[in-house]
Design brief:
The chain has 100 residues and is α/β, with parallel strands linked by helices. It has a single domain, classed as Rossmann fold (3-Layer(aba) Sandwich). 45% of the residues lie in helices and 15% in strands. It contains 5 helices and 3 strands. It has a 3-stranded parallel β-sheet, with helices on both faces. Helix 3 packs parallel to helix 4. The chain is globular, with a radius of gyration of 13 Å. InterPro entries: Bact_response_regulator, CheY-like_superfamily, Sig_transdc_resp-reg_receiver. One of its GO terms (biological process) is phosphorelay signal transduction system. This is Response regulator FixJ. Keywords: Phosphoprotein.
């Protein structure tokens, strides 16, 4: 994984489902949350919307291979995502975005 090769390796939690990620969020305060658009059980936008409502200070980033104007609009309006990154993403741009 791109981020594990960088200086983030001790600061990353990977969850295989939105539910597992929500459990982690109850234990740890994350600054940045990156979600895929397609998740088992709920969409990445729904997940990030829940994150926005419960952890409003987190930075939310959506990854997708299904980027359309409606996805952009929903992600911005419903989940207030900072960025939407289209797959395949550029590793350097992702690192730059995370570093702020």
């Amino acid at each position: 994984m791109t981020l594990k090769k960088e200086d983030f390796c001790n600061k990353i939690i990977i969850a295989k489902t939105a539910e597992a990620a929500l459990e982690q969020l109850q234990k740890i305060n994350f600054n940045i949350i990156i979600s895929d658009y397609k998740l088992p059980g709920m969409s990445g936008i729904d997940f990030l919307s829940h994150v926005k409502d419960n952890y409003p200070n987190s930075t939310r980033i959506l990854l997708t291979a299904f980027l359309t104007n409606s996805v952009k609009k929903e992600a911005k309006n419903k989940a207030s995502v900072k960025s939407i990154i289209e797959k395949p993403w550029n590793k350097d741009n992702l690192i730059k975005l995370i570093n702020g």
